[in-house]
Sequence to fold (1141 residues):
Amino acid sequence: MFEQLISDMHVSRMLPEILVLVVALAAILVDIVTPAGRSTRPVQITSIVGLLVVIASTLFVHNNGPAFGGMVEIDSFTIFFRVVLTMLTIIIMAVSENYIQLVKIRIAEYYLMLLFALFGMMLMTMANDLLIVFLGIETMSVSLYALVGMSRHRESSNEGALKYFLLGSFTTAFFVYGIALLYGAVGSTNILDITVYFQRTGMNLPIIAWAGTLLVLVAFAFKTALVPFHWWSPDAYEGAPTTITAFMSTAPKAAAFAAFLRIFYVGFGEVSDGWTTALWWIAVLTMTVGNLMALRQDSIKRMLAFSSITHAGYLVVAMLTYDVIGGAAMLFYLVIYGFMNIGAFLVAIALNRNEDDDRGYDINDYKGLAFRKPLIAFLMMIFMLALAGIPPTAGFFGKYYIFSAAVKSGFIGLAVIGVLNSAVSVYYYLRVVVTMYLKERDEKTEGRIFWKPDMAFAVIVCAVLVMYFGIAPDQLLKVATASIGALW
Amino acid sequence: MDYAILMILFPLLGVVLNGFFGNRWSGKAAGILASTMIGASFVVAVMITMQLIGMDPHHRMEEIKYFTWIKVGGLNLDFGFLIDPLTTVMILVVTGISTLIHIYSIGYMHGDSRMRLFFVYLNLFVFFMLVLVLGNSYPIMFIGWEGVGLASYLLIGFWWEDQSKAEAGMKAFVVNRIGDFGMLVAMFLLFSHLGTLTFTEVFDAAAIKWGHHIGNATITAITLMLLLGATGKSAQLPLYVWLPDAMAGPTPVSALIHAATMVTAGVYMIARSNLLYMLAPTSMTVVALVGGLTAFFAATIGLKQMDIKKVLAYSTVSQLGYMVMACGIGAFGAGVFHLMTHAFFKALLFLGSGAVIHTMHGALHHVHDHHTDPQDIRNMGGLRKYIPVTFSTFFIATLAIAGIPGLSGFFSKDEILAQSFASGNMLAYGLGLAAAVITAFYMFRLVFLTFYGEYKGPEGSAEGLHESPKSMTVPLIILAFLAIVGGYVGLPIVLGENVNLFHNYMHPVFAHGQEVVHHHANHLSHATEWLLIGISVAAALVGIFLAWTIYRKQGKVALPDAAQAGIDKVLLNKYYVDELYNFIVIKPLIGICNFAWKIFDAGFIDGILVLGSAKSVRWIGGGVRRLQTGVVGNYAFMLAVGILVLLIAFLVN
Fold:
């Protein structure tokens, strides 16, 4: 009877997610058997090896379809994000051990929280039911709250975590309220039922259904840090240990966009005329405000934090197209953005003078870096050019696909605003290149360089991928197109 | 012709070898290696051209596809090259001049500690420039377009100890971004209307789609956006401001990138897109106007510049204006012809000025003078005696640019003027003719002040004046030879039907566009042609005569900056355009940034976070009580306001 239940539920379709939990449990065990006060290296290795198995199980075990009675849907879209999110998590874990020793975090929970966050994110990407989205978001968020506050002895870390937690809870309340309103109108929280309901009503929705849709939109806008729901992100990004900042600005953002896409394309697609106007304005605001704030930053970490808001704006432009080309452009951009942003953050970690000091990420530390450390400067230049969207890096194609998709769908004004914004962003990215290549070395600002083999390896991998997807964007774009196709 | 790829692989190899292993050999060896690589590219370019010439004139077009680059969702792009007469002219000019300038640089950069890096950048530039002219689609061209911008920017700021040079690099890049914006929008529009971006397919599809709707708003918008791109890269009004500042870079860079090759990319792009322009007569008029005004306007600024390189910089802007104007009146072939001859004589002028500066440096160094500006022509004079090779080659180039019959510049400039007369656009003809007089004047002013009269440098420094080394003078002599004979491939039609070899060679490239719009070149009678030639020559002679009267006969000496007044002062200050940009663009931009900064950052982040940090100590240490009224409350309030605005917007909808 119980076995029957398991097979009806198609639990096996969630094998990778179950494996992530198993890895987490294994990591806890490893931590327990490691003598106290030792490094967390064993936990790190256990987690990474486990996640490699997760990727293998995703790629080689094909078992698509709904599970848990249609609560979740495993399709090529899910698989795409499973692989991407796990890879990003592995990169972050790989460089973390030396870093957390440096900033004196030294607790195995760092890895456990990453694993739980990954589980939550994976759940979000497959959720076919608003309640599962909620579950995924909360699992991810609670882990992130803890991660942001991990540098316990540092005030800004505590402050960022607290603000993130409070505002996150606030938004969660809105999200739950939105789900409740939709349930009131539709009588179900499953997005397929919601679609059927919208097909029947068309644009003549009762006001509670509109309000519910809107509140769900707000919850996603908050998680993806779109203006004007971005208030938490600069504080949280600045306060978090930098590896976690790199993580938060990429993987959770990708997961939130994945759920955003599935819920709005599949569930609320019928009433897209209703939400595109709101998203249009959100896109314009997000691109512009993020840019204007990044312009003035002298700290690389803050500059990257603000610019990640802008990049979320470009992603919204892609999402607005509501077609396969735009969706594929969005997935493409999410992947390459992940690599270029993590790469840039890792270089920032390598050069950070003092984690506890607010000026630890000062741009002046980069003066003449090209002559001091040519390789690091060269890699950083690749990431900066990619973020600025200059060919032949992948960043150029990412933006190119997004804006051409927007034009094709008739969002010409939006594309123009987007291109103008990315022109503005060239200024602050290029400033870093100028500082590295065209400024004289300044002995006063030269600090230690934290460049360990694991870090070097991860940064080079990111740089190679950023260049590779720039020179040969075809394959990734094909995979992205096939994945987004699952939503139609 | 698959081996065309070698042309871009050689410079790339140079970048890799010098970039990664170059610290194992000397800067000179790096220079020789880099020059060899470009030389090899030149050989490939010659072979390609020969092979193309060997083909039937009507089928002189080869598209080589190397691999599928992007194939997804309607966009189908191969990485490939398009080889036709236009391409071969460009690759010959680019690789040929680059080889000479690489060799020259070995001498010029001698002793610079970062010589190896310089050659890495230079090779990188050639790589991207070749991608730009060889690519078979707009995106590939755009990759080259951005790449040359990057390389140029790195080279302008090469001597970073000088802050103004680093800033000039930044200015070049930022201004070019405005142009790139136009390029991107044009590409998006082309793709959304035609579904392709490969040159051949775009032109075929455009001819079908708009062939019977000439002057359609979409094609006009596309071509105007492309023109915006061209005004950025080719330094036309109103985006020319970066080019004169860019001359802060090393002189070989000015010669190669900012005179002979990169800045002509805009002209190349318009010529490549000639069919699109033919479909949009309004855009053509705008192109002609932008070109003509630039030619005239920049020439007038050149009248009063005191820095030898600044004179040449404005002269370049002006000559680029001629090329763009030629495209605007439909004489694309004449524009490309001038592009080629200009590459010869302007590269020569820049390299010559480099040799002059090199000499002046030596002389000033001789007397340990570090205050006198070695580039200011007011400190020169009489150099003819000391550096005869530099002088004679510089003089040949001056004759060529002034339009003296028998030298290359005459043939191309005369063809542009004749064609603009024939097209009936008398404004273009008038601007071109006026610019020709002014050009002859300021070029001879430069020659007279630099090479004639008395040496005006610091006392005793004359003994330090020496001719430059062989590696610098040999390229000068070769370029001088080209500046003389380069024009004979395009003799005026009046001398016979088939003497304009260049025109005939290029004709297939532009034939399709002319067929689509049933355009027929207006032929002038022989008498008119001869008359126009006479007028052109007279214009040059008038300019030279005026310069001779003022600067030789009356022996007028240029005044110090402070003593300038009236129109002289306005010209010296370049019509105050930089100041105008500063006032109407940069200041408001800074204002907006500051405003946004105050609202978003100073208000919420600085004010609240800094304040918040102080408070948070108390929160964490003390009570939770404060949370209710603290900063987070503000954030939450903003969130709620956001939701409310959205809700209202939703309901209103």
Remarks:
- Residues 331 and 419 of chain B are 7 Å apart (CA to CA).
- The longest strand of chain B covers residues 62-72.
- Residues 588-652 of chain B form one domain.
